[in-house]
Write a structure and sequence with these properties.
The protein contains 12 helices and no strands. The protein is 74% helix and 0% strand. It is globular. It has 317 residues and is mainly α.
């Protein structure tokens, strides 16, 4: 081992591991420069918009016009606001437009830009038709096309985060899309419960409950399979935010069960789940930034993987 760094891996003879240090205590990787609240808002709004677009299509097919209309509006508002948040973080609109100049299938950022841009246009057209009553066929076609892109909208931001070198995101690349998908579905159901008459919100309530269950289960698995990286999701500010998000998710899901005939309970459920989804995205975002600052989370898992590969090679030999 080079001078200036001490490993926290298990020492010989069962001795306690020494504390890991990097050179001069500096991070090994650069912390993301993405800003708050722009990027957490971008993560939340895009997911909510994607799930709302799916809900709008299903509501149209099951003859729930008010739910379909509000789903279209939520999808358009969420995707438009998501684009605004992203552009504000980038600093100039041209930077967003430059990402659309070339399509790179191997780049999650490029693919995500090509999902977000057409999705925003399609949801805007479908919402405009729903609000004005003009060109209903075009509105339905736009809503249907947005529904095709909607599943990608709910999860591509998770892939975008996991594709970075930030250990708090990269190490949980398997579970993160499921956390984001569940959060998106529950938030879309929440917005619908806040905006739609109770008689048409049955699908939204089911979405809220199912999304909450998926989010809670995936987040629990994420923290337990992340190894030492799981620390960043349990401690400090990210830990506090994520615990609050889980409490709000449980409360919102429970209220959704009893919201069938009570608009006030539905509103409480909607507010709890909306706040929970936003808090989940912020907590995960902050956990990643914390992991980037501490070199232990970058180096130690790499050494563990290398040791496992060497052990596998010895066993196979």
């Amino acid at each position: 081992m080079s001078a200036g760094a001490v490993s926290n891996e298990q020492a010989p003879n069962g001795q306690a591991p020494e504390e890991f240090r990097s050179y001069y205590g500096q991070p090994v990787i650069k912390e993301p420069t993405w800003k708050v609240p722009d990027v957490p808002a971008y993560l939340y709004l895009g997911g909510m918009a994607g799930a709302s677009a799916t809900m709008a299509v299903l509501a149209e097919l099951t003859d729930r016009p008010e739910l379909a209309r509000n789903g279209r509006i939520a999808a358009a508002a969420g995707s438009t606001a998501s684009v605004v948040a992203l552009i504000h973080d980038l600093g100039r609109p041209m930077r967003f437009l430059n990402m659309l100049r070339v399509f790179k299938p191997t780049s999650p950022l490029s693919v995500g830009s090509w999902i977000l841009a057409p999705f925003s246009g399609l949801t805007g057209a479908s919402a405009a038709s729903a609000l004005t009553g003009w060109y209903p066929l075009l509105g339905r076609l736009s809503a249907g096309a947005a529904g095709v892109l909607a599943p990608a909208m709910t999860t591509y931001t998770a892939v975008l985060l996991a594709d970075t070198a930030v250990p708090g995101w990269h190490e949980v690349y398997r579970e993160l899309p499921f956390v984001f998908a569940g959060s998106a579905v529950s938030s879309a159901g929440a917005v619908a419960m806040l905006t739609t008459p109770t008689g048409q919100t049955a699908p939204a309530r089911r979405m809220a409950i199912a999304g909450s269950a998926l989010e809670l289960a995936a987040e629990r698995r994420m923290e337990h399979t992340a190894g030492m990286i799981g620390e960043v999701y349990r401690t400090g500010r990210p830990g506090r935010v994520l615990r609050a998000a889980r409490a709000l998710t449980w409360a919102g899901a429970a209220a959704s069960v009893f919201a069938g005939r009570h608009r006030a309970i539905g509103a409480v459920a909607g507010l709890c789940l909306s706040a929970a989804s936003a808090a989940t995205r912020y907590g995960i975002f902050e956990a990643g930034r914390v992991s980037a600052r501490d070199p232990r989370y970058t180096v130690v898992p790499q050494r563990q993987r290398l040791a496992e590969k060497e052990q596998d090679a010895q066993n196979s030999g």
